[in-house]
Specification:
single chain, 324 residues, alpha/beta, Rossmann fold, 7-stranded parallel sheet, two-stranded parallel sheet, 12 helices, globular
Length: 324
């Protein structure tokens, strides 16, 4: 089977392509530039690269799609820490919704059999209160990123209905693992530096997924007949509170967690004053996923526990700390 992976240079894409090649798939990697690991990847005759610039409603995917059986579409515009666009939603829509729609239409016309799309649990919403999110919940995106992903999902269903191309949608929570960036990387760094964190009173539950588990779930969706035209929520299946996560990270790093109490309302007030309200919400709020559907219908079990995933993430961090 010949597979096109978009976003192949990214955090998830690199791990996915390496795993696909080891499993014997032919992998065409859509990239903006050659990755640093190109020489090791080229050791396989089943790997090749195709250069794609900006993804939009005008991208020409013709060369990338030749002979392809399945697309795994990872490329997306994600959260920007320091947004510079005067109209962020238009840019999110251009890349995530219109860009995905064009790729899917061209793929259907080129005879691609299946299109696996990595979406986000944020399509369901930002926070859970009384029950875990499931695939049956009414979508409730709250920001530009998740709204654009939801629009992309709807476009894929419409194209599938019209052209018959099989689609599979995976909604993922926060992904951690070797190469992780942004907030999770900062948390690793703070725990490693023994920085006291005012989070011992937080009583929440959050779902996450280790990159090795996500890659395994994506590969399960490539050929499984029961994945056709379905949406799946995926996670490690081990929901933890923020203090529990910090303690687990500390153990993986060989450190001692330094937590002290601070009432949640005070944390939120500090976050508002500092312009970090969204970060505080993620640290104090709950977001839980029920991933039983993919486990039941695709007979999928995460190959790694959260403890294993955090240990491998910590090992990577310690080995690369000076270069991060």
């Amino acid at each position: 089977m010949k597979i096109l992976v978009t976003g192949a240079n990214g955090f998830i894409g690199q791990r996915l392509c390496e795993t696909l090649l080891k499993a014997g798939y032919f992998v065409r990697e859509a990239v903006r530039h050659l990755p640093e690991s190109v020489h090791s990847l080229k050791s396989s005759n089943n790997a090749e690269f195709v250069f794609i610039d900006d993804i939009s409603q005008k991208t020409n995917w013709s060369m990338a799609l030749k002979g392809i059986d399945c697309i795994i579409h990872l490329a997306a515009r994600v959260h920007i820490m320091r947004e510079t666009s005067g109209d962020p939603f238009t840019v999110f829509r251009k890349v995530n919704a219109e860009g995905t729609s064009l790729l899917a239409r061209m793929a259907a016309n080129a005879g691609v059999k299946r299109f696996v799309f990595l979406s986000t649990v944020k399509v369901n919403g930002e926070e859970t209160e009384k029950h875990q999110f499931t695939e049956r919940d009414t979508p409730n995106p709250h920001d530009d990123y998740s709204t654009s992903k939801w629009e992309a999902e709807q476009a894929l269903h419409n194209i599938s209905d019209a052209a018959g191309m099989e689609i599979v949608i995976l909604r993922s929570p926060l992904v951690y693992g070797q190469g992780v960036k942004a907030n999770f990387l900062r948390l690793l760094d703070m725990v490693n530096k023994n920085i006291p964190l005012p989070l011992s009173m937080v009583n929440n539950k959050r779902s996450m997924i280790y990159i090795g588990n996500l890659v395994d779930a994506i590969i399960r969706c490539i050929e499984h007949p029961d994945a056709v035209n379905k949406t799946f929520l995926v996670s490690d299946g081990q929901d933890v509170s923020t203090p529990e996560l910090i303690r687990m990270i500390a153990v993986a790093l060989g450190k001692k967690a330094r937590l002290f109490p601070c009432p949640a309302p005070l944390l939120k007030m500090i976050g508002n004053v500092a312009g970090k309200s969204s970060e505080i919400e993620r640290l104090t709020g709950s977001l839980q996923i029920d991933s039983s559907k993919i486990r039941r219908e695709l007979n999928w079990t995460p190959p790694f526990t959260m403890e294993q995933g955090l240990r491998m993430t910590a090992d990577w961090f310690m080995s690369n700390e000076k270069n991060i």
